[in-house]
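Hey team,

Filing this mostly as a record. A colleague (T.K.) asked me to run one chain through the structure pipeline before their review meeting, and I want the input and output archived in the tracker in case anyone asks later how it was produced. No errors, nothing strange. Just documentation.

Input sequence:
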Amino acid sequence: MSMTDLIEAARVSKAWPFQEAQRLLKRYPDGAKPDGSPVVFETGYGPSGLPHIGTFQEVLRTTFVRRAFEAMIGAKPEDGKTRLIAFSDDMDGLRKVPDNVPNQALLQENLHLPLSRVPNPFGTDYDSFAAHNNAQLRTFLDRFGFQYEFIAASDRYNSGAFDDALRQVLRTNDAILDIMLPTLREERRQTYSPVLPVSPQTGRVLQVPVEVVDAEAGTIRFTDEDGTVVEQSALGGMSKLQWKVDWAMRWYALGVDYEMYGKDLTDSGVQSGKIVQALGGRKPEGLIYELFLDEKGEKISKSRGNGLTVEEWLRYAPQESLQLYMFNSPRKAKRLFFDVIPRHVDDYLTFLGKYPEQETTARLDNPAWHVHGEAPPAPEGHVSFALLMNLASACNTEDRDVLW
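Output structure:
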C-alpha cells in the first residue's frame, strides 16, 4: 500500500489503536509537537518484582497505539517522530520483602531504602536489587523485539535531571496538598507530604510531614527517625515523591503524551492528572484497560500465581497468538488460562489468511497488521499447528505435556 493510502485509511480506521491515536492527533493536528520534539509514549514498571504478563501487555498495547499514530502521520520508528519510554520507578522505597526472592533476611534489613540502593539478593553481578530487576526487564522486552528507551527513576533523581521538576513540585506544594488531602483518611492527612525525604542518617525513604523552606533552592525541613530536625536539599536524589505526585511529575518532566494503565489505577490517574495541571503540564492521553482473570473469574495476582505466564503461553503457541489475545477487547476483563490458547491460534491464522486479499482499510482493521507492524508473513505452514492446538486443548495436563 502507498503511504498516501496508508495515511488516509489510518485516519478512518475503527480499530481501537487507531481510535486511541486519533486522540493524539487531536492534541497535535500537525502530527508533531509545536517545538518539533517527539510525541512521547510511556509505560511504567515497579522493579520490586520481575517482569510478568502485565508488563508484556502494557508495552505491547502501547506499541500498537504508537504504530497506529505513526501510520496516521506517515512516519516510521526510525524517523524519530515518536518515543516509547519504559520507565522503572526504582527510587521507590522497599515496603515489604517479596515472597519469591532469595536472601529474605538481607532484604528485611534494608526495608524502606530506595530499591536502587537495596543490596542485590540474587547473587548476580548487578549492584542493587533494582539493577538486577531492571536488567531482567530489558532482557524481557528485548526478547520480543520491542523498540523502547529505558529510563530509571534513580538515574533521573540522582543525576539532577529531575531537579527542575522537583522545584516546581515544591513551588506548588500547597496546591498539590489541596488536591490530595481531601482524598485521604484523617490519620493519613496528618503525615502526608508530596515530598518524601531520604534520611541522611539511615538512607530510608521517610513518610513524614515536610516543610518547604526554599523552593528555588530545593530546601526542605523535616523530623528524622531519631527525632532530629533536619534541613536539607530535596534535589539530587535526597528525596522521592509520593506515588501520585511522582507520576504527575514524570509526565511533566518527560513531556509524556500517552500512557495507558489498568482499571485499578483509575483514581491515581485522576489525581495525578490534576497534579500535572497544577505543575503547569498536561495529562497524557491514555486507555484504561481491564484486568486479567483466571479460569474461575478471579483477578490474576503475581503473588498468588494464578493464571498463565508469558512462558506458559509460549510453551504451547507462537508469540503472535498471545499478541492477538492482548489486542482483542482491552477494555473488557478477560480470562487468561490454557483453554483460551487454541482459539487464539486459530483466530490468528484466520486473520493472517484474510490479509493478502483485503483492501487497505480492511487491512488496518485486521489484527494481523497490528501484530506484525504492517508486514504480516504468508500464512502457509501453520495449519497443522492449529489442529494440534485443538487436540491439546482436549487433553488433561499430563497428556498435554506428553503431546507437546
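Quick notes for T.K.: Residues 53-73 form the longest helix (21 residues). Residues 399-404 have pLDDT under 50 and may be disordered.
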